[in-house]
Amino acid sequence: MVKVKFLGHAAFLIEGSKKILVDPFLTGNPKAAAKPEELEADLILVTHAHGDHIGDAVAIAQRTGAKIVAMYDVANYLVENNSGITTIGMNYGPTKVDGVKIVQVPAWHSSSDGKYSIGNACGYIIEIDGVKIYHAGDTFVFSDMALFNELYGPIDVALLPIGGHFTMGPREAAKAVELLKPRKVIPMHYNTWPPIAQDPEEFKRLVGDKAEVVILEPGESLEL
């Protein structure tokens, strides 16, 4: 069994034979369902350098010894500016880390520390214990998402932003579902702040019967 727990905004904890955190933005997150010191991890995946995605990755890695996987430039930036962490820098493509299959895939978004551009944004297709999970990171919809399904599918669950303003809104995310063809989809990156306020039920209506939409409140989980 693999459990996918929504921690708020774009942060998730994936629990199976390994514990994987993705974009652990908790400190300063008004929707956070956990504190950084409450979480354990073996791997931490970071989609891009914005603070609401790198979040508490470094602090958790320093405390737990978890390896941080990120775009090569982001990984170098983190290890050069912080002690006591191990990073694995990669670029778009497949790899395997501690028995977990990871494909880093493109995302259409910026990536910076607030001042300087750092690397490119990405998403991840994670295969753990036979379950395939796609975390889109921050992105707009693009037609190459169909390749993710063709090359790495079938995707068991897709974690897709629906907030608009910085990412896809519900309409675009519903189109992404059509391209990705996942069994289930969990909306994320919405209602954290006013600019990304959305009704997830509208997204569910737009998706229709293309996939099962699972709307999670922060702290809730989906078992696969």
TrEMBL record:
Region forming the signal peptide: none
GO molecular function, one term: hydrolase activity
Keywords for this protein: Hydrolase
Metallo-beta-lactamase domain boundaries: 8-189
Gene3D superfamilies named in the record: Ribonuclease Z/Hydroxyacylglutathione hydrolase-like (3.60.15.10)
Presence of the UniProt keyword S-adenosyl-L-methionine in the record: no
Superkingdom, natural source: Archaea
Keyword Hydrolase included in the entry's annotation: yes
InterPro entries, per the entry: Metallo-B-lactamas (IPR001279), RibonucZ/Hydroxyglut_hydro (IPR036866), UPF0173 (IPR022877), UPF0173_UPF0282_UlaG_hydrolase (IPR050114)
Annotated PANTHER family: UPF0173 METAL-DEPENDENT HYDROLASE MJ1163, UPF0173 METAL-DEPENDENT HYDROLASE MJ1163-RELATED
Similarity remark: Belongs to the UPF0173 family.
Protein name, per record: UPF0173 metal-dependent hydrolase A3L08_00450
Organism, as annotated: Thermococcus pacificus
